[in-house]
Amino acid sequence: MKTIGLIGGMSWESTTEYYKIINQTIKQELGGLHSAKCLMYSVDFQEIEECQASGDWNKSGQILAKAAASLEKAGADFIVICTNTMHKVIDIIKNSIHIPILHIAEVTAQALLSDGIVTVALLGTKYTMEQDFYKNRLIANHINVIIPDEGDRTIINNIIYDELCLGKINPESKMQFLAIIEKLRQQKAQAIILGCTEIGLLVHQADTTIPLYDTSYIHAHSAAMQALKNRWQEA
User: Which residues are known catalytic residues?
Assistant: First the structure.
């Protein structure tokens, strides 16, 4: 079994889900008392969020690059960045290490395509929804991407940072999310990407009939399966 290097803490609320999903997957695949071989470097999210808000992506990239290098030195075979937004700085991180990174958008694209989904709506932080670093990965896989309108993007971003990252689950916020999801369905989205690892804490498949693709589950499950492969397979 390969050793997974997890860069977590963004937020720790969703990072705990990664740890659980990875170990559940290993247990399901191997049985008995098996669990995952993994290392975690949990950053201070306050520091990362301040970099995001000020637009200092290079500084935040260097923080995560240092974390990745530490994980490699400690024996990790590959890296998992336990957040969607910070994949914006993946190139900075790659330049600091010699082991692969499992890209969250790539494994999500694979899951969509395997189910025949070619038009999808993307929910996430304002950075993930509005900037190209994430959408372009999906588009490169021939997936059409719809994002909410500006007002709804603001609602989503505020709920993520002001509530979900603080562990607050608000029923009214769930209803707002579901209303936005319904709008996106009417715009011909075949499915919804929960493109922030905290959204799955609030909205679940049982809440709607449109397929939801929870990136935290997809990413963590893919990491566990990658750890069981004999050699690295590109996402």
Answer: 83, 196
